Each structure stands twice: as structure tokens, then as C-alpha cells.
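Hello K.,

You asked for the raw outputs rather than the summary table, so here they are, unedited. I folded two proteins back to back in the same session to keep the settings identical. This is the first:
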Amino acid sequence: MSQQEDMEISFCIPKPWGDEDQSFLKIIGMNRVPIAWRDVQWDYVQSKIGEQMNPQDYYDFREHLYADFNYMHLDELGCINFSGRYPDNLHEEINNYSIVAGVVARQQTFDIIHSHDWLTYPAGIHAKQISGKPLVIHVHATDFDRSRGQVNPVVYAIEKKGMDFADHIMCVSELTRRTVIEKYHQDPNKVSTVHNAVSPLPQEVLDIVPQKNEKEKIVTFLGRITMQKGPEYFVEAAALVLKRTKKIRFVMAGNGDMMNKMIKLVAQRGIADRFHFPGFMKGKEVYEVLKASDVYVMPSVSEPFGISPLEAMQVSIPTIISKQSGCAEILDNCIKIDYWDIDALADAIYAICKYVPLNEFLEVEGKKEVDQIVWEKVGVKVRAIYERVLNNRQ
């Protein structure tokens, strides 16, 4: 989006780490925005936040304090030290984030507010109330997806309020859009589908040499090991495949609250000698695992989008996804199954491993397809929505 003419982006994040690329947008570290007055010298501010933010920005924000928040736990600059993660006091941090947004909204000049996911909806609402500017929210997932229907009423209330206050709602899939309309009772006219995309692979990923054993195939599940991702269906399908052949190994990479349960299930099915749990993967490790694989599987129960299949297809790995995933709406050159149909999943895994023409077709055509799914196209679509929202308010 930042590559478009006359588009300036201020990106507010809880806690910058100092290594962010600010060449294409301005990053505002919310943990460096004061909400209470502190009489501090330039040199001191420079020593504390100079690597993350221009000290002048700190003083500019300080001129727009709007209430006495000294009763809160603040640092020596009058700022809140956000964790930048998902702490135990998550709801407190969400509220604190909206307090800081009040200062930012008073100081910054902007045309539109874009809040990503439910954690920032209260901040977006506060910024809208202060500035009068339109609010667009982005729904990457709802609590219906995360909880498999056992919705947390507090989270639902935050999501619902954000949607109610929003001038427009962007959803990462038509699947998510329907959930927003039906479960959160939103006007279909203000809800759009904006599918995700992938970035071109960096050279260090392209240079990874696949570590493969010609005598056996590798089938990989990579993601959070939680009920949303359907890991038990992967294990059950693996057990069925291994009744037909022992020349396949299964990898469940990642961690999550169901990991121990999956380890026990693998043992109960008697397939522990062909099953591996390498743990959490990130960055280059993800692509090392993918490139070593012969099949990638995402059997998600409810997946708003699911970017990992696109990443697998980028490196020419034949892919199987559940029909209950948002990316199934835009991908054709992969195999789609119902998450619960372990027989169909097992058949698909076996077929890709056994039949070379099918394997080669999915490798080549899958990569061709996903190489056309780029963020530049998404940015143009988002910009068009911004324009429509702004025109509707004139």
C-alpha cells in the first residue's frame, strides 16, 4: 500500500524492537507515547527511546495529554510498557492500548483509521470518537474460529462493538464474512472480503537445498497444535496411510495446548516410529521443513484464511487443505477435503506420495497459481475500500 502514490501510513504497534523497517511507513511505538506529564530532558529521552522513535515525537505527543493517568503503572517517561506479546493481563493491555490511542489520535493528522483484529478495536473506536474520522476494521479471525463455537462472551462483546462502530469491515475470506454477517449481525453492505496473499521469497529461502530421502516420503503439518487446526485428523489419517505403506514419515511441527494429547494419540495408534514432533518453527526453519516435505497438509476445522498452504505451494510442495479454510476460496491447484473426512485425507496423502504425475502436476501448477497471489493486488483493493468509505462520508 505504501508504494501507492499519496499514501502515507502511520503504523501503531505496542512495542517496537528497534529493527523494524521504517523506510516505507512511520512506526509509532505505543509504549513510547506518554499518557502522563514527565519533565524530562532531550538527552534523557534520546537515551531511552532514540533507537525506536524520534525524541521530538515524544514531546509532540506530550502536548496532547487529555487526562490524569498518574494512578496507572507508568515508567519514568509517563508511558505504559506493553509486553508486545499475549500476556496474562491481555484485557488490561487492550484497554491501556485504547488510552494511548487517545493521545495519538489527538496529535496525528490522518484520513482513516484501520484497526487489525479484535485486540485493537477499542483503540480504533476511541480514535474515531476523538477525531471523527472513519474506522475500518480488519477481521483476521473471530472467536467462533478460535474456540470451535465455545465463544468467550467478553471477547465476543469486544468484537461485536468494534464491528458496530466500524464504517467498514474487511474480512480475510468469504467464510469469515459470512460469520461476521450471521453471528455478529452486521449489514452485508459494509462487509467486504479481502483475501490474503504472499510476499516473494527472499534469496536465503530460495537457496535452501531440500533435505530429502529418496526411499521415503515426508508429510508435514505445520502450525499451532490447537483444536482450530484439526491436528487429531492429521494423526488419524496418518494411521490409515501407514496401514498401506511404511515408506512415509509424518511431521507435526509447532506447539500448542493439544501437543501432549497428540503425542499420546500417536502412541495409542502405534505409529510413534513414523511420527515426529520437532517443536515450534520460525523464519528460515519453516521453509527448511517445507522444502524437506513431499506433501503439506492443513486440516483446519475453521480457518479464516490460512497462509501456510500458499507458503508451501511457493516452494513447489503439493498441498492438501480443508474445505473449511478461507484460502480454499482462491486456490485451485491443491487437493481439498472436509476436515473430518480422514479417509479422504488418507487417500489424498497416499495418492500424492504414490503417483508421480499427480505429484508433479501439483508441484508445478500450484507454484504457478500462488505466484499470482501478491500483496500489491490486495493493497489496491484495500485502497479502493478506503476511497469508498471516505466518499460515503462526504
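The second followed immediately with the same parameters:
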Amino acid sequence: MASPSTRSPPRNRQPRLRFRDERIFYYVALAPTTIVIACVIALPIIYTFALGFFIQNTLVRNWRFVGLSNYSDLLTDADFWLAFWNGVVFTVGSTVVATVFGLVIAILLDCNFRGRGPLRALVIFPYIVPSIVVAFIWKFIFSGRGILNDFLGFIGAQAVSVPWLGDQRFAMMAVILISAWTWFPFAAITLLAAIQNVPDNIYEAAALDGAGPMRRFTYLTLPLLAPAIMVVVLIRAIWAFRNYDMIWLLTEGGPIGATEVLPIMAYKEAFGLFRMGHASAVSVSLMVFVTLLAAVHFRVGARLRKAYDTS
């Protein structure tokens, strides 16, 4: 029997990786993901930037270096600025309508009433419906012989059927309303979550001080929801400015360019007129505008988070 003073031999411990070895391990582990990102994202972006410096026609496959000519031509291109302005109108209009409507729905869903649970689940429905289905439904509603014109004629509001999506005066308005309808569930669910995070004792104290519902909404609800509203607005603005599928399915940019935005213009230049260099210049310009919106999003979001943390 071994004496008590006898100690068991030390266990074999595996040596820990040093900092340099760990760093090499991280590089090796991230290498496959980095290569995939470079091939899928970085290379097409670099190719698009480079293509903007050439005049390239896919039909004859000729390349001619023109420097910044494609970009300078955009500054005097009336169609480009019309598409840019249409994008601004569409972005502002759909963002405002979707956010306001989503805020109203969020406030209503926060109230305690019977059937609130199923209604909350139903609100998300427009957001999950495929774009092609939404486009066909609303094209039928807004057509010359659609439900909207039948209803307006029934109540005596109008005597002549209006092709809403085919009329230059109303096409953009119709597209804005349809796009806002598909997006408002995101705003409603986000703002509803923000409303439910507001402590009830704040409203109780305001009610004891004699503040009515409107004053509580103006001076309590809106300031407390400002960070969430700003996030919804900025995210929607970024997505709306680069929107392509919904507008293309509804109007294809018509009538007479009334709803043509920069993504649709880039598509027509590339696959309609086969001017790949000019289309790349439009795409790069769109990328710059979206990047600026994203920069504003992160900057404003950081300031709001800082203000919220200090308050």
C-alpha cells in the first residue's frame, strides 16, 4: 500500500494555443466564408464598377473604354433624373403611409378587446404573401373594370371607369398604396413591440395629472416610440428606394415612365437596350444612394440608442 506521502503523477495537460496560433486558427476557419462572400458579392460589385467605364453592347460584344463618360452622361440625362425623382416620391410616399398606418394598427392591437390574438396573427398576412400574388390581386382591383371602379360607381363618386395603373396621373399613387399595404405589417409588429415595452405606470401617472388620451399620445407615446419609428422609417426607405419587383409587376415602369425608378431603368438599359456600360453606371449610382441611406440609418440609430441609454 502506498504511503500517504506518495503523490499521484501529474496529469498530462494539453498545451493551450498561444495567441498567434489562435489567430491563425481563426483565419483558417473564416477562409471558406470569406472566399464565398468574395465570389458571390465582392466580385460582381467590382465587375459592375469596372463595366461602368466601358461602352459594351451585348449584341456585338465590343468593349470600348470611355472613362467617366457613362457617369457624366447621367448628369444630363432627363430620364435618369426622372427615375431618381420617381424613386424619391415612391420612397417617401410608401414609407409615410406604411409607417402611419402601421402605428395606428399597433395602437389598436395594444388595446384589450375580444379576438385580439387572432387579429394580431392576421395582420402579418400582407407581409408574407408573395409579390406576384399581391400584384395580380391589386391589378384586378385597380383595373378599369375592377372592384374599386365598381364601388365608386355604386356610391356615385365617379361616372367613368379609371384605369388607375394605366393612367399617368394616378399610377404612382396606386403603386405607393399597394407597396405600403405590403409593408405596414412590419411597421405594426415592430411598433407594437415597442409600445408594450413602455411601463404602464407612466401612463397612470399622466392620467392622474389630468392628461387626456390625446395628450398622452402626443407627449408620451410618440417620444417613447421615436427610436422604433426611426428604425422602421429608415429600413423602409432603404428597401423602397431599391424596390424593383412590385413596381415591375404592377406597371413595368409605365405609363410613359410615370413609375419608372432607377432599378427598372437599369434593367431596361441592360436587357432592353443592351447598353451594359450605361446600365452599370445607373446601378452604381443607385448603390451610392442606398449606401448613403444606410449610413444615415446607422448614424441616426447610434444617436438614438445613446440618447435612450442616457435617458
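The longest helix spans residues 276-310.

Happy to rerun anything if the numbers look odd on your end.

Regards,
P.
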